[in-house]
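Summary of Year 1 activities. Much of the first year was spent building the evaluation harness for sequence design. The harness presents a backbone, in tokenized form, and records the residue chosen at every position. We chose the following record to illustrate the format because it has been used consistently in internal testing since the harness was completed.
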């Protein structure tokens, strides 16, 4: 009897062990099958999910795409390889601002790829020794230390409910980001770099968008840091195109293509309107950017970004010394500063002012020394026929202006705002953000309460499509394009030919 019991017990143990083993094997097989299925799924074969290499809203049919020589994207089946090229003029002149890193972005739950799908070479070996970082996408826990990339995230619909976890809200403009912080959807982290790093760990940040100064780096987990340089590109259109780069980390290429195509179309329509409907008889205004620094030195700013904004707005930009983007004048040389800007119709002032609420037009003129003898005849001084503009038409937290936030991704709105202030033309809807103001105009102070109105006009494309449509409507039709082949024109030509023959 005891032998039978022992044998029965042994059989039960064997059956239990077999069941456990079979369950374990089945689980492992299912996991392996899941991995295989995920990695075998071709996520990126269709152009509709790839980046466009130009301003088209249709993605590229190529597996390897070069974007403005800034970065190159190679698509695999379940991953993308992003190689920074640092080919922009700004990057070439400031090599320390751009890292020639390689970012390998692969779908969550898949293995890190090791082979380039186009060259079949080892990814890290092919990167030439530069740092290679790996990211699972779409990014789920994102942090941003400054406001320099918030506009790009908002353009892609990335907010507290879709991945953005931490920002430094003391100096941001966006009313909707302010609202998200107040609602607790996004953590507002200030303080020291160590406190920021600790919060990165706590929130499990998997993508930290930083700048060349290391703003907002997660120092304990350096592999999650990505140096974003798009807001330093040469023109407003090129800066806006960097929305495509950001989209790669969220699988939002299609949205980025559509966004940039619409901005490009609107920008082109506005420049056409300016050329044909605003500039009269080829007479162009003259435009210059200036500021007074904390050390009381005066500066004229004529980098390509600012100069291009002037020319696109139908004005001749300041032409400075070759190879320089800034000219500096000591206080004792204020007469030389005034002499340089004296005949300019539009002077755009970037001088930082902490108490705009208490300032008036005379105060701003005094800051630039217009009350001095040499400043009395500067054309931009009130009463002399020119205009003095400020770049703080609206301010958010910490007096942050929107020029360096949404202004980086809204080239059409930015241009139209300058055109309307410089030439007195139509402007954007009242709820669209404003960048420029006459010194005689007041600042708009933006809070979370402005979010709903801004979202409404954005939903209706009033800050881009409406500008394009109005610019097209107001652009005079050229004789050659609209009339040359019209039936009336052809009839007139035929009649003139007959009459000429009869004579």
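For this record, the design step produced the sequence shown next.
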């Amino acid at each position: 009897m005891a032998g039978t019991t022992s044998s029965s017990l042994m059989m039960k143990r064997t059956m239990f062990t077999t069941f456990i083993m079979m369950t374990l094997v089945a689980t492992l097989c299912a996991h392996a099958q899941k991995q295989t299925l995920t990695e075998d799924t071709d996520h990126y074969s269709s152009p509709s999910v790839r980046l466009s290499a130009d301003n088209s809203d249709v993605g590229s049919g190529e597996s390897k795409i070069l974007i403005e020589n800034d970065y190159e994207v190679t698509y695999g089946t379940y991953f993308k390889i992003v190689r920074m090229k640092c080919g922009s003029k700004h990057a070439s002149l400031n090599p320390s601002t751009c890292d020639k890193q390689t970012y390998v972005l692969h779908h969550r739950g898949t293995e890190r790829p090791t082979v380039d799908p186009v060259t079949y070479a080892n990814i890290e070996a092919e990167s030439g020794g530069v740092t290679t970082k790996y990211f699972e996408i779409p990014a789920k826990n994102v942090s941003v230390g400054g406001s320099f990339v918030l506009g790009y995230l908002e353009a892609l619909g990335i907010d507290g409910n879709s991945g953005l976890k931490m920002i430094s809200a003391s100096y941001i403009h966006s009313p909707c980001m302010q609202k998200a912080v107040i609602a607790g959807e996004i953590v507002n982290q200030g303080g020291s770099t160590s406190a920021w790093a600790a919060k990165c760990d706590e929130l499990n940040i998997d993508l930290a968008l930083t700048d060349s100064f290391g703003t907002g780096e997660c120092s304990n987990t350096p592999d999650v840091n990505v140096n974003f340089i798009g807001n330093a590109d040469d023109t407003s259109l090129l800066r806006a195109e960097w929305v495509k780069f950001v989209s790669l980390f969220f699988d939002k290429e299609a949205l980025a293509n559509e966004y940039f195509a619409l901005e490009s179309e609107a920008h082109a329509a506005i420049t056409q309107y300016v050329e044909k409907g605003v500039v009269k008889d080829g007479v162009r205004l003259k435009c210059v950017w200036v500021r007074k620094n904390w050390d009381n030195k005066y500066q004229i700013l004529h980098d390509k970004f600012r100069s291009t904004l002037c020319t696109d707005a139908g004005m001749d930009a300041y032409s400075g010394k070759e190879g320089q983007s800034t000219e500096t004048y000591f206080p004792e040389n204020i007469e030389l500063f005034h002499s340089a800007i004296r005949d300019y119709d539009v002077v755009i002032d970037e001088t930082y002012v902490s108490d705009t609420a208490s300032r008036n037009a005379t105060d701003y003129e005094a800051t630039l020394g217009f009350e001095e003898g040499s400043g009395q005849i500067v054309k931009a001084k009130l009463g002399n026929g020119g205009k003095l503009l400020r770049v703080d038409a609206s301010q958010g937290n910490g007096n942050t202006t929107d020029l360096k936030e949404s202004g980086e991704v809204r080239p059409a709105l930015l241009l139209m705002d300058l055109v309307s202030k410089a030439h007195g033309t139509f402007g954007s809807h009242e709820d669209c953000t404003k960048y420029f103001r006459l010194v005689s105009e007041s600042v708009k102070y933006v809070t979370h309460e402005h979010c709903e109105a801004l979202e409404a006009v954005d939903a209706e494309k009033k800050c881009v499509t409406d500008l394009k449509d109005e610019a097209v409507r107001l652009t005079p039709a050229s004789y050659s394009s609209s009339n040359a082949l019209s039936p009336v024109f052809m009839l007139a030509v035929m009649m003139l030919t007959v009459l000429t023959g009869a004579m």
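The first helix runs from residue 2 to 40. Quantitative recovery figures across the full test set are reported in Table 2.
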